[in-house]
Amino acid sequence: MRIVLFNPAPRSGWQVQRRIELPLGLLCVATPLDLAGWDVCIVEEYGNRRWRTELVEALRGECVCFGVTSMTGPQLLHAVRACQVVRQQRPGLPIVWGGIHASLLPEQTLRSGWADVVVVGEGEETFPDLADALAAGRPLGSVAGIAYLEEGRFRATAPRPYIDLNAQPPLSYRLINMDHYRRRLFGMDHVSFNSSRGCPFRCAFCWDPVLHGRKWRAMEPDTVMDHLRRVIRDYGIRGFLFTDDFFFADLTRARGVVEAVVQSGLGISISKLQVRADTICRMDRDFLDLLVRANVRRLTIGVESGSQPMLDRIRKDMTIEQVIEANERLKPHPIVPVYLFMMALPGETPEQFAQSIALAVRLTDENPRAVKTFNVYTPYPGTELYDTTVAHGLQPPHRLEDWAAFNFRKVRDDAAWVHPRTRRLVDALDFPLMFLGKGHFVTPYKRTNPLAVALARMYYPLARHRVTNLDVRFPLETLLARGLGIFGRQD
């Protein structure tokens, strides 16, 4: 009997750089189902013009349920669109939602009419149990870790304990077309990989403490290497983008993984590891040299703001001085630091936003390899900072679909928590900020559309002028970019 799983597109629009991520969440759920003998079919929407045809074909025959995942934001509309197809083709087929948004707001997701069951939290053990219950007609109340409606009343079963990552089998990559997810970086094909979950820190903007309770769990180094070897053996892919929320939570374990990569002699490239600036300050030169020997090409570092009072307000538990020191420590090494900033944070003044820009300019000027990314703050339900936005006047959406307007590329029209002058700066500088640091679109380690590269080189001087001088007069290029869908659309 078949189970159909759907990965909705995160957005619509043209990609300047091809970035289609491996659906790790669905693969984690699909693998135990596959090993248990279920006929599992995964349908990918992003970059797939035939997704609707493939979904209709997958729904033929004996199906037990349809599963879909989604994040808060535009992806929700794509998930709903797929559910509409399912309702049309198979009206009685149970629809199961999982992922971050459904886990944060299970009741509203159920009352939308597009979900019959919500898997709350991790699905590796919950989904197979749920599938067995649906196939056998067993009461849903016997399945831990789910929520559902019973005669119009919301029901949530007992939470399921966190899984042991070391006990999980290698992912069933054969269920997808791996070539669809290859991403060319530093001259090598890469795919996403995850070796740990959770984060011990308390950042007020992050959904992770809500779902993982600030509990960090990780694969042992030997387990990590076993998984990587299988990908290399079966698909010839040696590049990996680690999606761990905080790979370096345990420096001893992190060193063990990196040393195992070096000792393997497999020519592995690691082009993404997420790390905190204060953690880099704790690394000695030998540790940084070890990262280089392991072909660690990029470190993603969440800075969030160039204002210390703002960092304190969002509970980042880090200082601006540590960010600057981390950048200085990385400078002698051939590692690309990618600094992540947020803008339009609750209560952020124009002066504080200007401090973030000034810090980004300093980091990219002092370290020629450094790049940065600015994204609009998105209020995730259940987080501490979300409650702050509600106190500032945010009206929580009453419909599932309305959460799609929470877009990290655009400030919400009703974002009363954003100072009007800050909003004007963010709206006008969002596009030119992408080119800060010698041009985000022209970095040599990415495969970028040649036309975009040429246009970026021409535009860079104007972008630099706008950003460093906070010049928001006549932002025609930003308006044009939005009109062309470069920021992504919600449809």
Overview of this structure, please?
The protein starts with a strand and ends in a 7-residue tail after the last helix. It has 18 helices and 16 strands. The chain folds into two domains: 155 residues, Rossmann fold (3-Layer(aba) Sandwich), CATH 3.40.50.2300; 309 residues, Transcription Regulator spoIIAA (2-Layer Sandwich). The mean pLDDT is 92.
SSE map:
Elements: E1 2-7, H1 24-35, E2 39-44, H2 51-58, E3 63-69, H3 75-89, E4 95-98, H4 100-104, H5 106-111, E5 117-119, H6 126-136, E6 146-150, E7 153-156, E8 183-185, E9 188-193, E10 196-197, H7 208-212, E11 217-218, H8 221-235, E12 239-242, H9 251-264, E13 269-275, H10 277-280, H11 285-293, E14 298-304, H12 308-313, H13 320-330, E15 336-343, H14 350-366, E16 371-376, H15 384-391, H16 420-433, H17 450-469, H18 476-484
Helix pairs in contact: 8-9, 9-11, 14-16, 16-17, 16-18
